[in-house]
Write a structure and sequence with these properties.
Order of helices and strands: EHEEEHHHHEEEHEHEHHEEEHHEHEH
Strand content: 15-25%
CATH topology of the largest domain: Rossmann fold
Largest sheet: 7 strands, parallel
Number of domains: 2
Bound molecules: ligand FO1
CATH superfamily of the largest domain: CofD-like domains
Number of strands: 14
Structural class: alpha/beta
Distance between the termini: 16 Å
CATH architecture of the largest domain: 3-Layer(aba) Sandwich
CATH class of the largest domain: Alpha Beta
Strand order of the largest sheet: 5-2-1-9-10-13-14
């Protein structure tokens, strides 16, 4: 079975771990969000690609969900001693090596997709990891300017990490997405897929950014295979992260049913909500999306495997 997964960072990576156990023989292609990418200290950092790669490759800081375990921060401290920041973004020494290799290869002319493949040769994540695009896309968030009357756009990482999404987001813009082309292999993987899954990743800044790359949404809608998603909202609050803040920016309520309808029946065939949201199943089905309520908390691998198995079962049910 060929499965395509549109993944953000932590939620996507943890779901993939469950999926790989639920379908050990499946051929899994992950299309990773690169809208969170940021250039720091002359280096290209790809948080979501790295989170998937490290998580599946056994190199993730498990509690934190991003970055490497047993980190030291000597380089960051030395940069700070020169007065060079930002101090709010935690890049460890081990992680730095990944960004140095990536930036060096990009400087030598390799596209991000080839660089990602090269990095994965070390980590062996057991899936094919593709960036959504080789082109530069950067998600920016429009906030009230704390120093003035108007508004200003900040990089997604500044909104997420420095500001902890503590101020209202008026708009979320994947800058460059409209001009971006899907990376090599992305459209082919979708066309060849037997099922497409949306993990419980952020529907706006993760899955939404991937869908904003021209051709991706259309390819999924036209693939003629079941498309099944898992709600990142449980009991009207994000399972983790601050998805509610960016959902508000696109005018979507922070409920499992509202997120399903945001994706829409033109894209989504099946939707899994948590048992606490069982009361919304009817509302989702009325919108033309088959819906089931199951436990959706990725508390451990067993629970995550069960979620992935339910997603695949719903896909089969949709296929009829
Ligand atoms: N998240 C944080 O909350 N604080 C950090 O300092 C931080 C650093 C960081 C470095 C490398 C990396 O790959 C991820 C990092 N993240 C950090 C996670 C990241 O900012 C976001 O959680 C994702 O971009 C959202 O998917």
């Amino acid at each position: 079975m060929r499965i395509v997964v549109l993944a953000g960072g932590i939620g996507g990576a943890r779901f993939l771990r469950g999926l790989m156990s639920a379908a050990p023989d499946a051929d899994i292609t992950v299309i990773g969000n690169t809208g969170d990418d940021i250039h720091l200290f002359g280096l290209k950092v790809c948080p979501d690609l790295d989170t998937v790669m490290y998580t599946l490759g056994g190199g993730i800081h498990e509690e934190q969900g991003w970055g490497r375990p047993d980190e030291t921060f000597t380089v960051k401290e030395e940069l700070a001693a020169y007065g060079v920041g930002p101090e709010w973004f935690g890049l460890g020494d081990r992680d730095f090596a990944t960004h140095i290799v990536r930036t060096q290869m990009i400087g030598a002319g390799y596209p991000l997709s080839a660089v990602t493949e090269a990095l994965c040769a070390r980590w062996q994540p057991g899936v094919r990891l593709l960036p959504m695009t080789d082109d530069r896309v950067e998600t920016h968030v429009l906030i009230d300017d704390p120093d003035g009357e108007g508004r200003k756009a900040v990089h997604f990482q500044e909104y997420w990490v420095r500001l902890r999404a503590s101020v209202p987001a008026h708009a979320v813009v994947p800058v460059g997405a409209d001009q971006a082309k899907p990376a090599p292999g992305v459209l082919e993987a979708i066309a060849d897929a037997d099922v497409v899954l949306f993990p419980p990743s952020n529907p706006v800044v993760s899955v939404g950014t991937i869908l904003a790359v021209p051709g991706v949404r259309e390819a999924i809608a036209d693939a003629g295979v079941p498309v099944v998603g898992l709600s990142p909202i449980v009991g009207d609050a994000p399972v983790r992260g601050m998805a509610d803040k960016v959902l508000a920016a696109v005018g979507v309520e922070s409920t499992a049913a509202a997120v399903a309808k945001h994706y829409g029946s033109g894209l989504l065939d099946g939707w899994l909500v948590d048992t606490v949201d069982a009361g919304t199943v009817g509302e989702v089905e009325a919108a033309g999306i088959r819906c089931r309520a199951i436990p959706l908390m990725m508390t451990d691998l067993k629970a995550t495997v069960a979620m992935a198995a339910e997603a695949l079962a719903l896909a089969e049910e949709v296929r009829g």
